Structures
1.
Amino acid sequence: MANEAKKEPEKKSKSIVAEFKEFISKGNVLDMAVGLIIGTAFTGIVTSLVNDIFTPLIGIVIGGINFAGICIKLGEATLNVGLFLQAIINFLLTASCVFIVVKTINRFRRKKEEKPAPPKPTKEEQLLTEIRDLLKAQQKK
């Protein structure tokens, strides 16, 4: 009985390993990895856009307030409200950019799908094509 109990978890772990190998070997994992790398780089660009361009401009519009400097002190704790606001702006810009990219891709996909396939020739057209081909063949003789 002890041997049977040991064999069952081994089978389970082998099936999990096999499942994992199957998951890794699919092309979707590679696509996800590329997306993650590009997304990480994209986040750096958006973070710079927020911190170096938008946040100072918003600060100027609202009276020269530097978001990074906004904080609330509660006893010994400091709540960095400004940094949190920058993170929210960063998130909203990233989400907006991703939305625009996805919307653009979907528009191209729809246009591609909307292209109607050439209509199949009717039986009459097929017959006429065969007659034409036969006449051409007779002329060559």
2.
Amino acid sequence: MNSGTNPTQTVAAQSLATERLRVLQLLRRHGFNTTSFQVLEDGLSYWWDSPEACVAYADTGRAWVAAGAPLASPENCGAVAARFVEAARRAGRRCVFFASQQRLAELPEMVSTQVGLQPIWDPSTWHANAQASSSLRYQLNRARNKTVVVRRLAATELTDPNSSMRRSIERLIERWLGNRRMSPMAFLVHVQPFSFAEERRSFVAERAGEVIGFVSAVPVYARNGWFIEDLIRAADAPNGTVELLVDAVMEQAAGEGSTWVTLGLAPLAGPVPSWMRRIGNVGKPLFDFAGLHRFKARLAPVAWEPVFVTHPRDVSTPLAVLDALRAFAGGGIASFAVRTLIEGPALVLWILALMLIPWTVALALSDGALWFPSPEIKYAWIAFDVVVCAAMISLANRFQRTLAVATAIAVSCDAVLTLAQAALWNVPRLRGTGDAGIVIIGCAAPLFAAAVLWRGVRREFRRRP
């Protein structure tokens, strides 16, 4: 009887599981980098220098992008990194260490450029600092007054795929991911809170029996600390829910005698190169780097540590950063951009709204007798486009369900009427390929805009049933 299981895939999965257990043993001895536990995520390969040293990396086809520093003893870290660089060259790849920290950045044979900062807390002083910060104290009290309750999860609640709690968390994560402006990334940012659950410290925020928030902290063994890796809240969770989840992690860490907690990298924070900051400004519609830094700063960290991209001297820093971006994109930056445009309507709506402005001006200046059956129809289209442009700008800033549905219906009707006018009026009067191109653009634009709007509406209904 054929069970449908591929024996080759089963053997490969078992081999990978065994290898990850070997990596976990190394982590317990040498896991110093903040991202060290994340090397157990899907999509990474392992280069073994010896049974006591390895490097986890993503192969982009052009470069091996390492997830932080090598897993090795401090005295061997530099030598292992150098041999990894040589192994990458033999494979025809460049080499980059992303999210490296001071230990690797100090190697003289490497070039390290700061890409951001990570906040640090001493959990033993968290309670006093939280009480001293009026804004943080206010947020914590606000969530408690809204009857938000946080509790630690047992590992079995996460490992059992049939448990009601795991299913609730899966739904929360699905809705949270569905609300992101960017397509899911593939390097160091996977949301996989159910793997190695025994090693994690996971908490859930509930209100009236409903899961509205979740946090998972992973160990940084060599620093006697924790990295708050996943911090997720429902869109309708009361303000202060995230702070209450962080508070639970800090209290747990202090109770266990841990001395170090971080929320991880705040990209582009601190003294980063100006060209990096300009790139961040261009990408602001997709990701608010400054906003992330402000949020972490509001939690009153006791210190900030620099985070670097490290690479050999024969690789330029912009090329190393590009290789790292390819790893995050899952290989191709262009294909990632296309997925983001399709899956996240905000940027597309901005682009469509901006393109609609010159289009509307062109309509106003056009020969009405050539393009429209009557002057009244011409000015009706102009007025309609002005209203749609304003609605798209509003939706790009904040996606509102009612406005999105109304705009999607209006643009869908626009698409139908445009096609009808094109077929009955414009096509018989075409004077050449230029006119034909204008008619095609006029018909295609509302069809595409309607598809983007309806997709956004569908995602909004999935996010908030």
